[in-house]
């Protein structure tokens, strides 16, 4: 394992329904990021398909399996460049069901598939929710977990890969833009920071850009350190075209969970009380 | 219940060991805040005693019960002004044990005592940790929960009063200052924002100021709305003397947990998965 890990988020503008275009721009971005030294490259949620489907049939029609053309192309890039890729795709589960998925790919191919467990809005009419906790994969660049977008709004869910040892959580996201006070950082980014801090785990969230069927996006890609402070980003470029952020991470910091002489972010959890209070 | 609730955080500078002084400045601040319209007034953690004890005996010597002089004086103020006060004090539990506690007081006296469950650093050598979840009290200004400082770093703990219906969480804190990147908002404040947003619950965190035995403080008092954005503060006045923030809250916003046509911040939790993953 190298002492430091260079992580990139490629904030791109997929077009819903144009799978060939989306594959092409994702491969360009991967090669560009790798040229700049990136070892772990995160792409947006549903990079392969775009996001704003008309309905379930639309998504099913665009879906691919983990052995389909797009994930295979990403595997080829990971092999050629000796990198890790975490990217979102619309996964065909069987003849009728689709999942909002992310693949973790390294030089040897697909190492894990994660299926979004917390579905946002109309996704509930389209996707089958995942029922498995986020995988944590030992890569040669560090222990990497993954989850997708709205999953990040459930701190209980973020705890799971953190407790399983993830040093870096890679999160493909599509954050729809919503009003916020002038000069405030988007609350989506704030939640990423808090999730990182309470777990002492690095998080790389890769958002998208490019208005799609009248939906705009935060465009807030960010790479946050184990203290919860941004190392790169947050970008704030809604509809202003693609962008990339890059940061060099000392992932071993995430192995040190002590935050004072007597405190440890995980050991100090009083799970007995959380449980008993919930049962009451 | 009034349609809106005016909340104040009085960021004061207690002196460790000077209980009479601390009581006096707290009463002055309460009366001042009430004159400006505050209906709910939050004071810092350990307002009554100060924070940086030399040892357990020091804290035990300063401790009072919930019928002691300081809490009684706060009860008198709450009765005279018809307000709610949430304030921290060093509570004597018995002849040998002390708790880092907060009292919620209204016109009728003490309505609840909360005892800090997650102890910070040397507090572990001084205080007996609480074993009860944060109380949620129906006041005439709204449903109010409370917790103390480091408790806020455990999102599982913040869930409990939120699930119990709290519209406003009042948090006396003493945030020790620590280095952070220039121009970044303190991560303590960021965590408060995230806790509010993922629960759609208002949070008022009242920090302290005034260097005490070489410990300085963030001085980051903040009142955050149910979307996670500050309505007042964050103050950033370490050692710059006392200050007050005031905000008018529409607490009924916290009763609406829907964040899209199909999403609800609490109902969307997949507790079965959190549990099974933890047992695994």
From TrEMBL, chains A, B:
Listed GO MF terms: hydrolase activity
Alphabetized UniProt keyword annotations: Hydrolase
Classification via CDD domains: nitrilase_2
Classification via InterPro entries: Aliph_Amidase/BUP, C-N_Hydrolase, C-N_Hydrolase_sf
Residue stretches making up the CN hydrolase domain: 5-251
Tree of life domain: Bacteria
PANTHER family: BETA-UREIDOPROPIONASE, NITRILASE C965.09-RELATED
The protein's name: Carbon-nitrogen hydrolase
Species name: Pseudomonas weihenstephanensis
């Amino acid at each position: 394992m190298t002492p430091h890990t260079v992580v990139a988020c490629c904030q791109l503008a997929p077009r819903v329904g144009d799978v060939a275009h989306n594959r092409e721009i994702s491969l360009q971005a991967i090669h560009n990021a790798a040229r700049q030294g990136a070892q772990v490259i995160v792409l947006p949620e549903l990079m392969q398909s775009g996001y704003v489907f008309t309905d379930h049939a639309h998504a099913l029609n665009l879906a691919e399996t983990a052995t389909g053309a797009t994930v295979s192309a990403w595997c080829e890039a990971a092999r050629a460049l000796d990198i890790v890729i975490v990217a979102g795709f619309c996964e065909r589960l069987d003849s009728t069901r689709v999942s909002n998925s992310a693949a973790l790919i390294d030089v040897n191919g697909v190492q894990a598939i994660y299926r979004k467990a917390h579905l946002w809005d109309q996704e509930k009419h389209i996707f089958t929710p995942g029922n498995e906790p986020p995988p944590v994969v030992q890569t040669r660049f560090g222990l990497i977990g993954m989850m997708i977008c709205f999953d990040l709004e459930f701190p209980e869910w973020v705890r799971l890969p953190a407790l399983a040892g993830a040093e870096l959580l890679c999160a493909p996201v599509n954050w729809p833009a919503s009003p916020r006070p002038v000069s405030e950082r988007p609350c989506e980014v704030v939640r990423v920071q808090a999730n990182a801090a309470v777990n002492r785990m690095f998080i790389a969230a890769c958002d998208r850009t490019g208005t799609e069927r009248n939906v705009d996006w935060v465009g807030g890609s960010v790479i946050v350190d184990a203290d919860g402070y941004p190392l790169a980003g947050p970008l704030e470029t809604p509809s202003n075209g693609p962008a990339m952020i890059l940061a060099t991470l000392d992932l071993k910091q995430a192995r040190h969970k002590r935050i004072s002489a007597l405190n440890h972010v995980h050991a100090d959890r009083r799970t007995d009380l959380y449980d008993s209070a919930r049962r009451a």
